[in-house]
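Async update (no meeting this week)

Hi team, since we skipped the sync, here's where things stand on the single-chain job. The sequence we agreed to prioritize is pasted below, unchanged from the tracker. I ran it this morning and attached the output directly underneath so nobody has to dig for it. Comments welcome in thread, and please keep replies under the output.
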Amino acid sequence: MNPDLINRLTPFRAEALGRGIPPEDVERWIATARPSATLVTGGDGPVVGRFGGPLLLPADAPDPWYPLLATLDCAAVPEETTGLQLPPDGRLLFFGFPEMTYYGGSAGEVVYIPEGTPVEERNTKYACVYGEEGNEFVDGAMLGIYAQFPQEELRLAPDVSLPHHFLVRSPESADDTVTLPGHPRGLDLVEAWEETCGDIVVDGPLHIGGYASHECTETDPVADAAEDAEEARRHRADAAELPAPEEWTLLAQWDIGLTGREGSTLHWVIPRQDLAERRFDRAHVSFFWNP
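Output:
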């Protein structure tokens, strides 16, 4: 990782050592740091995408159920900035809506459009918000949330990320949790990170890569979302097995902050192998809210 990003963790190191955490535990935690890209709506960083905008899809692509949140220009985001094997060109479209789903269902999807693919503009009267054609409905609460979806350019800010979680599923029982293996002071280290990260990371609404978080992070939200994807697969009676939770990664995180959804988060997660193969049909979107 870029040494400048590691150097930004100096306040975290000082805080952790000041709490009496052994230096070897602190350095082992810092060694888990990942690069990430925070996308912001101001500043002087390069424009790499936008919130909202027209919906442009290939003619044979189905109409999306969920609204378009953001579009990312893959060529404008260096791999070393995110740590992800994003496509070298083209655009990633992130769809989603901050609403609870059932049986582990996905709250959105990801669509990849390679460079040079012919596209056409689509109607943005999304079924998630307005109902399906012939069965339209008006839900004032849903419309109120959707009306707040941002419509702005997104600029790139290189960032650094440490874990916000300190527990994993127990190998003995899926209903139990244990401390993150190799990190006996995980809870203390997370508390030190929470105390200092506001002075280290970039304040922005959309994150690409890095570690996932939400208001009540204890276990890894990526692993939790992968388990939701598996539950949804079983509910659909889909025979195709999904990769294990540890083989998934965070693609994007939206810290929402809309009126009526304060403190909520959407995570787009994907198997690492799928990302390397530019396959996005198994990406899963999870919604967390602690109202």
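Quick observations from my side:
The chain has one domain: 3-288.
The two ends are 36 Å apart (CA to CA).
Reply here if anything looks off.
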